[in-house]
Design a protein that fits this description.
alpha+beta
């Protein structure tokens, strides 16, 4: 038990979004506090990443002092929580090669990451090279403003401000999914 109670969140705290299904489906099924801590930590860490596809390695998690302090520095607890989260379907796992060394990599189980993880495997290889993670100069998807104009209509100054705010709050994959759904529902 900490010596001082948590003082509360400041007025302008940054937020980490979670899919609604996390609360309605995944949370009720999760019976391990350790697994819950690890999954929430991964959502937070991946939300902060700018590259795509977003993943985190086992070594990154194992060396994360904040996470490991919450797990009483137990690498066994970390491995068990990751295995359980993958078995439950909350996370995806693959092995990437980094400098010739295999690395366990974990992704949030979403349509975008399922496609990214399965793409290298469909070519006959079960491993992804570090160059395939994020190739320099690789074309990125359309930005939020292009998506809006292609799917909704003309931009106004008010819409630009709202889109900038949405871009700072939500992952790019979620924004693309939202525009796709909006266009499908007219």
């Amino acid at each position: 038990m900490p010596s001082q109670p948590f003082p509360g969140f400041p007025a302008r705290s940054k937020l980490t979004p979670l899919p609604e299904l996390f609360f309605s489906r995944l949370l009720p099924e999760t019976d391990s506090l350790t697994e819950l801590k690890v999954v929430l930590h991964i959502f937070w860490r991946l939300y902060l990443k700018k590259d795509s596809p977003k993943f985190i390695t086992y070594d990154d998690l194992r060396s994360d002092e904040t996470l490991m302090a919450g797990l009483a520095d137990s690498t066994e607890a970390l491995r068990d929580a990751l295995d359980s989260a993958v078995a439950r379907g909350a996370l995806l796992h693959t092995v990437l090669e980094d400098g010739g060394q295999p690395q366990d990599a974990y992704f949030v189980n979403s349509e975008a990451t399922r496609n990214a993880v399965s793409a290298p495997q469909s070519g006959g290889s079960s491993k992804t090279t570090s160059a395939q993670r994020q190739a320099p100069g690789a074309p990125e998807g359309p930005n939020i403003f292009t998506l809006y104009e292609q799917n909704i209509g003309l931009l106004t100054p008010m819409i630009v401000e709202e889109l900038k705010e949405a871009e700072s709050l939500y992952p790019a994959a979620w924004i693309e999914d939202a525009f796709r759904e909006a266009a499908a529902l007219n």
